[in-house]
Amino acid sequence: MASSRKSKRPRLLSHTRPTSVTKPASLSSQATRSLIRKHHTLQKQLQTAIAQGDGNSIEDLQTQLEASGGLKKYQEASIQGQSSERGGDSSKVLVEWINEMHQLGQSKLRMLEVGALKVDNACSRSEVFDMTRIDLHSQHPDIETRDFMEMPVPSPKNIAAEGFHVVSLSLVVNYVGDAVERGNMLRRVGDFLKPRQGMHRKDEAMNSVLPALFLVLPAPCVTNSRYLNEDRLEEILVALGYVKVQRKLSKKLIYYLWRFDASKGKTQDTVFRKQEVNPGASRNNFTIVLK
């Protein structure tokens, strides 16, 4: 579903990766989680200050981010958090789901991993996927330096050949600092997925789930948000042409596999505004907006 619609680059996403990272000293699991939470909190506060034009707060928050180690420390913590020793590789869930359906001898599935940090995760080690990995500031020669929001969209003529069976947004959407830009990112995924018609795969089980979006979010984004719950998220994705085919909730994360069918989606003008769906003083403010 190629589209001429242009989306702005998510301001905060464009700063999620430093240009180089040396091998870090190991952090404890608790220290890793604490650093990531603090970085996310400061980034959210900074985004609010920028929106309000509060110069003093912007300067103070930028100082706090630098004092806490900035982007480099966040990157190191993210990589350590994904280590197999700590059970942090979210792609293991996708491999488990796909392995239940993928038949030996079938051709590999083309997969686009957005925000790739490592080249030895479960998807990369499996025999199922032909990987294309991108990140804004690649840490490895097998990860292409590219901004997903500026990645050229395959033309309708070439989408069947150049499109992907699976696009992975694992712990990517939640880092985008602006709710509208999160919506723009989800809206754009469909432009890179192969059309359901004409895939001609022999394994019917795979045909029932492809092409697909693998979406991973911190669980509180949908379990404890004032403006987003699972029903609301599903409404948004159904409007974009998706059907939920797999779901897994852990203590920290929620995993989804969504089948895409461009013919089922509504128009590009579909709107989902910020709307309270889960009142409560202890809720967070995470949401996704379509404009």
Task: Explain what you see.
This protein has 291 residues and is α/β, with parallel strands linked by helices. It has helices spanning 29-52, 55-67, 70-81, 91-99, 122-125, 159-162, 179-189, 204-207, 220-223, 230-239; strands spanning 109-114, 129-135, 144-145, 166-170, 212-218, 242-249, 253-260. A hairpin with a 3-residue loop joins strand 6 and strand 7.
Which helices and strands, and how do they pair?
Elements lengths: L28 H24 L2 H13 L2 H12 L9 H9 L9 E6 L7 H4 L3 E7 L8 E2 L13 H4 L3 E5 L8 H11 L14 H4 L4 E7 L1 H4 L6 H10 L2 E8 L3 E8 L31
Parallel strand pairs: 1-2, 1-4, 2-3, 4-5
Antiparallel strand pairs: 5-7, 6-7
- Mean pLDDT score: 80
The largest β sheet comes out as:
7 strands, mixed
Structural class: alpha/beta
Helix content: 25-40%
Tell how many strands the DSSP assignment holds. 7
- Rg over CA atoms: 19 Å
Strand content of the residues, in percent? 5-15%
Q: Outline, from the CA principal axes?
A: globular
From the N-terminal CA to the C-terminal CA, the straight-line distance is 18 Å
Low-confidence stretches: 1-24, 83-87
Could you give the order of strands across the largest sheet?
A: 3-2-1-4-5-7-6
User: What is the string of helix and strand elements?
Assistant: HHHHEHEEHEHHEHHEE
Work out the helix count: 10
